[in-house]
Amino acid sequence: MLTHGWFVVDQFLKATSDKGIAMSAALSGYDRKSVEEFVIEQVEATGADPDLIATTATLESLGLDSLDVVELSQGVKKQMGIPVSPKDFVDALTISDAIAVICRQAGIQ
Question: How many helices (H) and strands (E) in the chain?
């Protein structure tokens, strides 16, 4: 019974830890504009042509591959404290879609 109790506590901590990070991200002053600026900086760092980078640009047209998406998700998690994983970006086709994923994970409207 005690083992089951620890399992429940562990599951609770896992479930609430990401929410806590997301809440702290929203409370720490991040907004949609700061997320957009961060994403654009990260896309520029991949070597994408700065003249082509726009929120409407597709990730594919900018030459981003799955490794770039992994690096983006790690950067968001490490530098902004927003819990995202590469699989969160599966349906993201454009820069705007990627920004929306990050904002949703952070609880940013």
Answer: 4, 0
- Spatial separation of the C-alpha atoms in residues 69 and 62, rounded to whole Å: 12
CA distance 95 to 82: 17
Question: Distance between the two ends of the chain, CA-based, in angstroms?
Answer: 42
Taking the C-alpha atoms of 72, 73, 77 and 83 in order, what is their torsion angle to the nearest 10 degrees?
A: 150
Residue count of the chain: 109
The answer to whether the predicted template modeling score (pTM) of the entire model surpasses 0.85 is: no
Q: What is the mean pLDDT of residues 50-69?
A: 96
Q: How far apart are CA 107 and CA 69, in angstroms?
A: 20
Nearest residue to 42 (alpha-carbon basis) of 86, 84, 88, 73: 73
What would the pLDDT profile of 71-105 be if each residue is shown by its tens digit? 999 999 999 999 999 999 999 999 999 999 999 99
